[in-house]
Amino acid sequence: MILQREGAEKDYTGSELQQVRELDKTITEAEKNELIDTIIVKTQGFVNGNIKEGDRQPVAIFRRLLSLYEGIDRNALRENLRYFLQAIMPVCDEYGINMCIHPDDPPFQVLGLPRIVTSEEDITWLLHAVDNPHNGLTFCAGSLSAGLHNNIPLLARMFAHRTHFVHLRSTNAFPNGNFIEASHLGGRAHVTELIRIFEKERPGVPMRVDHGRMMLDDAGKGYNPGYSFHGRMMALAQIEGMMAVINEESKLKS
Q1: pLDDT at 14
Q2: Does residue 161 carry a catalytic annotation?
Q3: Residue 100 designated active-site
Q4: Of residues 37, 55, 227, 230, which has the active-site annotation?
Q5: How many Å apart are CA 249 and CA 96, to the nearest integer?
Q6: Torsion of CA 215, 28, 63, 48, to 10 degrees
Q7: Which end of the chain is more exposed for a tag (fewer CB within 10 A), N or C?
Q8: Is the preceding peptide bond at 106 cis, omega within 30 degrees of 0?
Q9: Mean pLDDT of 191-199
Q10: Residue 192, pLDDT above cutoff 70
Q11: Are the beta carbons of 178 and 138 closer than 8 angstroms?
Q12: pTM given for the model
Protein backbone atom coordinates (compact mmCIF):
# COMPACT_ATOMS: atom_id res chain seq x y z
CA MET A 1 0.00 0.00 0.00
CA ILE A 2 2.96 2.33 0.57
CA LEU A 3 5.71 0.93 -1.64
CA GLN A 4 3.30 -0.07 -4.45
CA ARG A 5 5.63 -2.89 -5.46
CA GLU A 6 4.41 -4.68 -8.58
CA GLY A 7 3.16 -8.20 -7.83
CA ALA A 8 3.49 -7.75 -4.05
CA GLU A 9 0.04 -9.26 -3.42
CA LYS A 10 1.39 -12.64 -4.58
CA ASP A 11 3.65 -12.80 -1.52
CA TYR A 12 0.80 -12.69 1.01
CA THR A 13 -2.18 -14.79 1.99
CA GLY A 14 -5.75 -13.63 1.54
CA SER A 15 -6.06 -13.17 5.27
CA GLU A 16 -2.95 -10.99 5.41
CA LEU A 17 -4.17 -8.86 2.51
CA GLN A 18 -7.48 -8.34 4.27
CA GLN A 19 -5.65 -7.20 7.41
CA VAL A 20 -3.68 -4.73 5.29
CA ARG A 21 -6.86 -3.32 3.74
CA GLU A 22 -8.38 -2.85 7.20
CA LEU A 23 -5.24 -1.16 8.51
CA ASP A 24 -5.18 1.14 5.49
CA LYS A 25 -8.51 2.58 6.62
CA THR A 26 -7.13 3.77 9.96
CA ILE A 27 -3.39 4.34 9.61
CA THR A 28 -2.38 8.01 9.80
CA GLU A 29 0.17 9.80 7.62
CA ALA A 30 2.42 10.14 10.65
CA GLU A 31 2.25 6.38 11.24
CA LYS A 32 3.00 5.74 7.56
CA ASN A 33 6.06 7.98 7.77
CA GLU A 34 7.21 6.18 10.91
CA LEU A 35 6.86 2.84 9.10
CA ILE A 36 8.81 4.17 6.11
CA ASP A 37 11.55 5.42 8.43
CA THR A 38 11.78 2.07 10.24
CA ILE A 39 11.61 -0.29 7.26
CA ILE A 40 13.25 1.70 4.48
CA VAL A 41 15.50 4.36 6.01
CA LYS A 42 16.77 2.70 9.19
CA THR A 43 16.83 -0.91 8.01
CA GLN A 44 17.83 -0.67 4.36
CA GLY A 45 19.85 2.52 4.71
CA PHE A 46 21.74 1.04 7.66
CA VAL A 47 22.71 -1.98 5.55
CA ASN A 48 23.95 -0.31 2.38
CA GLY A 49 24.00 3.45 2.88
CA ASN A 50 21.93 4.11 -0.24
CA ILE A 51 19.22 5.85 1.80
CA LYS A 52 20.05 8.37 4.53
CA GLU A 53 18.20 10.17 7.27
CA GLY A 54 16.62 13.28 5.80
CA ASP A 55 16.48 12.01 2.21
CA ARG A 56 13.39 13.21 0.41
CA GLN A 57 11.11 10.61 -1.16
CA PRO A 58 12.78 7.53 0.37
CA VAL A 59 10.03 5.34 -1.10
CA ALA A 60 10.92 6.44 -4.64
CA ILE A 61 14.63 5.85 -3.95
CA PHE A 62 13.90 2.39 -2.61
CA ARG A 63 11.72 1.51 -5.61
CA ARG A 64 14.66 2.34 -7.89
CA LEU A 65 16.96 0.16 -5.80
CA LEU A 66 14.52 -2.75 -6.02
CA SER A 67 14.30 -2.34 -9.80
CA LEU A 68 18.00 -3.24 -10.08
CA TYR A 69 17.06 -6.80 -9.14
CA GLU A 70 14.42 -7.31 -11.83
CA GLY A 71 14.99 -10.72 -13.42
CA ILE A 72 17.30 -11.88 -10.62
CA ASP A 73 15.90 -15.06 -9.09
CA ARG A 74 17.29 -17.37 -6.42
CA ASN A 75 19.46 -19.36 -8.84
CA ALA A 76 20.89 -16.25 -10.48
CA LEU A 77 21.76 -14.76 -7.11
CA ARG A 78 23.45 -18.00 -6.08
CA GLU A 79 25.52 -18.12 -9.24
CA ASN A 80 26.55 -14.48 -8.83
CA LEU A 81 27.75 -15.28 -5.31
CA ARG A 82 29.60 -18.38 -6.49
CA TYR A 83 31.32 -16.37 -9.25
CA PHE A 84 32.41 -13.67 -6.80
CA LEU A 85 33.77 -16.10 -4.21
CA GLN A 86 35.64 -18.19 -6.77
CA ALA A 87 37.24 -15.06 -8.19
CA ILE A 88 38.61 -13.84 -4.86
CA MET A 89 39.75 -17.15 -3.33
CA PRO A 90 43.28 -16.98 -4.84
CA VAL A 91 43.85 -13.67 -3.05
CA CYS A 92 42.35 -15.09 0.16
CA ASP A 93 44.70 -18.08 -0.10
CA GLU A 94 47.73 -15.88 -0.70
CA TYR A 95 47.09 -13.50 2.19
CA GLY A 96 45.18 -15.73 4.64
CA ILE A 97 41.94 -13.76 4.41
CA ASN A 98 38.76 -15.39 5.70
CA MET A 99 35.50 -14.45 4.02
CA CYS A 100 32.48 -15.00 6.27
CA ILE A 101 29.02 -14.42 4.86
CA HIS A 102 26.24 -13.20 7.15
CA PRO A 103 22.95 -15.13 6.93
CA ASP A 104 19.99 -13.33 5.40
CA ASP A 105 18.22 -11.36 8.09
CA PRO A 106 15.45 -12.37 8.40
CA PRO A 107 15.91 -15.84 6.87
CA PHE A 108 12.99 -15.70 4.45
CA GLN A 109 12.00 -13.75 1.34
CA VAL A 110 11.35 -10.05 1.89
CA LEU A 111 9.99 -7.47 -0.56
CA GLY A 112 10.03 -10.01 -3.38
CA LEU A 113 13.80 -10.47 -3.23
CA PRO A 114 15.27 -13.99 -3.10
CA ARG A 115 17.20 -15.12 -0.05
CA ILE A 116 20.06 -17.60 -0.36
CA VAL A 117 21.64 -17.93 3.12
CA THR A 118 18.69 -18.91 5.29
CA SER A 119 18.99 -22.58 6.28
CA GLU A 120 21.03 -25.76 6.53
CA GLU A 121 20.46 -26.45 2.83
CA ASP A 122 21.59 -22.95 1.81
CA ILE A 123 24.73 -22.99 3.95
CA THR A 124 25.64 -26.47 2.73
CA TRP A 125 25.29 -25.29 -0.87
CA LEU A 126 27.42 -22.21 -0.23
CA LEU A 127 30.30 -24.08 1.42
CA HIS A 128 30.34 -26.78 -1.26
CA ALA A 129 29.94 -24.34 -4.17
CA VAL A 130 33.32 -22.85 -3.26
CA ASP A 131 34.93 -25.55 -1.16
CA ASN A 132 37.79 -23.55 0.28
CA PRO A 133 38.43 -23.08 4.01
CA HIS A 134 38.63 -19.32 3.43
CA ASN A 135 35.02 -19.35 2.25
CA GLY A 136 33.14 -19.45 5.52
CA LEU A 137 30.27 -18.25 7.63
CA THR A 138 29.42 -15.52 10.07
CA PHE A 139 27.22 -17.57 12.37
CA CYS A 140 24.56 -15.04 13.35
CA ALA A 141 22.40 -16.87 15.86
CA GLY A 142 19.84 -14.07 15.86
CA SER A 143 19.24 -14.10 12.12
CA LEU A 144 19.06 -17.88 11.91
CA SER A 145 16.83 -18.25 14.98
CA ALA A 146 14.22 -15.92 13.44
CA GLY A 147 13.20 -18.83 11.21
CA LEU A 148 11.30 -21.71 12.82
CA HIS A 149 12.85 -24.04 10.25
CA ASN A 150 16.28 -23.67 11.87
CA ASN A 151 17.66 -25.65 14.83
CA ILE A 152 20.42 -23.30 15.94
CA PRO A 153 22.64 -25.59 18.08
CA LEU A 154 22.43 -28.25 15.34
CA LEU A 155 23.57 -25.74 12.71
CA ALA A 156 26.42 -24.64 14.98
CA ARG A 157 27.65 -28.22 15.32
CA MET A 158 27.38 -28.80 11.58
CA PHE A 159 29.16 -25.63 10.46
CA ALA A 160 31.52 -24.70 13.31
CA HIS A 161 34.51 -25.88 11.25
CA ARG A 162 33.75 -23.27 8.56
CA THR A 163 32.66 -20.48 10.91
CA HIS A 164 35.04 -17.52 11.11
CA PHE A 165 32.93 -15.09 13.16
CA VAL A 166 30.02 -15.51 15.59
CA HIS A 167 27.19 -13.09 16.40
CA LEU A 168 25.56 -14.01 19.69
CA ARG A 169 21.93 -12.97 20.04
CA SER A 170 18.58 -14.72 20.22
CA THR A 171 14.99 -14.34 19.05
CA ASN A 172 11.56 -15.80 19.64
CA ALA A 173 9.72 -16.74 16.44
CA PHE A 174 6.03 -17.41 15.88
CA PRO A 175 4.04 -19.59 13.45
CA ASN A 176 2.78 -16.56 11.50
CA GLY A 177 6.34 -15.57 10.58
CA ASN A 178 6.71 -12.79 13.14
CA PHE A 179 9.73 -12.74 15.43
CA ILE A 180 11.04 -10.54 18.24
CA GLU A 181 14.37 -10.08 19.95
CA ALA A 182 14.84 -12.23 23.04
CA SER A 183 17.16 -11.96 26.00
CA HIS A 184 20.57 -13.49 25.36
CA LEU A 185 19.69 -15.85 28.22
CA GLY A 186 16.54 -17.10 26.46
CA GLY A 187 14.90 -17.51 23.09
CA ARG A 188 15.47 -20.03 20.30
CA ALA A 189 19.22 -19.54 19.84
CA HIS A 190 20.27 -21.29 23.09
CA VAL A 191 23.29 -19.00 23.33
CA THR A 192 24.89 -20.84 26.25
CA GLU A 193 24.98 -24.04 24.20
CA LEU A 194 26.34 -22.17 21.19
CA ILE A 195 29.25 -20.84 23.24
CA ARG A 196 29.99 -24.38 24.43
CA ILE A 197 29.97 -25.66 20.85
CA PHE A 198 32.23 -22.95 19.43
CA GLU A 199 34.63 -23.00 22.37
CA LYS A 200 35.06 -26.75 21.79
CA GLU A 201 34.95 -26.98 18.00
CA ARG A 202 36.46 -23.61 17.05
CA PRO A 203 38.48 -22.28 19.98
CA GLY A 204 39.61 -18.73 19.41
CA VAL A 205 36.92 -17.86 16.88
CA PRO A 206 35.88 -14.21 17.37
CA MET A 207 32.50 -13.94 19.11
CA ARG A 208 30.67 -10.67 19.70
CA VAL A 209 27.50 -9.61 21.40
CA ASP A 210 25.02 -8.47 18.78
CA HIS A 211 21.77 -6.58 19.42
CA GLY A 212 20.60 -5.36 22.80
CA ARG A 213 17.14 -4.38 23.96
CA MET A 214 16.14 -0.80 24.80
CA MET A 215 16.52 -0.03 28.50
CA LEU A 216 17.07 2.79 31.01
CA ASP A 217 17.53 6.09 29.18
CA ASP A 218 18.27 4.54 25.76
CA ALA A 219 14.88 5.74 24.50
CA GLY A 220 14.92 8.88 22.39
CA LYS A 221 18.66 8.75 21.66
CA GLY A 222 18.19 8.04 17.95
CA TYR A 223 19.87 4.63 18.04
CA ASN A 224 19.26 2.20 15.21
CA PRO A 225 17.03 -0.62 16.50
CA GLY A 226 19.06 -3.17 18.43
CA TYR A 227 22.05 -0.88 18.94
CA SER A 228 21.17 1.01 22.09
CA PHE A 229 24.08 1.60 24.46
CA HIS A 230 22.74 0.36 27.80
CA GLY A 231 20.89 -2.53 26.21
CA ARG A 232 24.03 -3.77 24.50
CA MET A 233 26.09 -3.37 27.66
CA MET A 234 23.58 -5.57 29.49
CA ALA A 235 23.78 -8.11 26.66
CA LEU A 236 27.58 -8.04 26.88
CA ALA A 237 27.43 -8.69 30.61
CA GLN A 238 25.15 -11.68 30.01
CA ILE A 239 27.50 -13.08 27.36
CA GLU A 240 30.59 -12.57 29.50
CA GLY A 241 28.85 -14.36 32.36
CA MET A 242 28.00 -17.34 30.17
CA MET A 243 31.56 -17.48 28.82
CA ALA A 244 33.02 -17.37 32.32
CA VAL A 245 30.86 -20.31 33.43
CA ILE A 246 31.74 -22.36 30.33
CA ASN A 247 35.46 -21.66 30.71
CA GLU A 248 35.25 -22.72 34.36
CA GLU A 249 33.48 -25.93 33.30
CA SER A 250 36.31 -26.66 30.88
CA LYS A 251 38.95 -26.20 33.59
CA LEU A 252 37.13 -28.57 35.94
CA LYS A 253 36.82 -31.24 33.24
CA SER A 254 40.52 -31.05 32.46
Answers
A1: 92
A2: no
A3: no
A4: 227
A5: 33
A6: -10
A7: C
A8: yes
A9: 95
A10: yes
A11: no
A12: 0.88
What ranges do the domains of the chain cover?
97-253
> Do residues 134 and 99 make contact, with C-beta atoms less than 8 angstroms apart?
yes
Task: Give the integer Cα–Cα distance in Å for 192 and 156.
Answer: 12
* Rounded distance between C-alpha atoms, residue 230 and residue 241, angstroms: 17
Rounded-to-10 torsion of CA 32, 33, 38, 39 = 60
Q: Which of 134, 164, 167, 190 is catalytic?
A: 167
| 12 in catalytic set | no
β-pair partners for 207: 166
Provide, rounded to the nearest whole percent, the portion of the chain with pLDDT above 70: 97
Residues 6+ away with beta carbon under 8 Å from 41: 51, 52, 53, 55, 58
Q: What is the pLDDT of residue 100?
A: 96
Within 13 Å of residue 111, how many CA atoms lie on the same side as its CB? Answer: 18
Weakest mean pLDDT among 118-122, 215-219, 244-248: 215-219
Q: Which of 100, 104, 134, 140 is catalytic?
A: 140
As a whole number of angstroms, the distance between CA 153 and CA 188 comes to: 9
**Are the C-beta atoms of residues 11 and 109 closer than 8 Å to each other?**
yes
- Concerning whether 92 is annotated as a catalytic residue, the answer is no
Distance CA 61, CA 38 (A): 15
Q: Stretch 50-60: mean pLDDT, rounded?
A: 77
- Catalytic residue check, 223: no
Active site residue 95: no
CATH architecture of 97-253: Alpha-Beta Barrel (3.20)
Average pLDDT on 139-150 reads: 96
- C-alpha 127/C-alpha 124 separation (Å) is 5
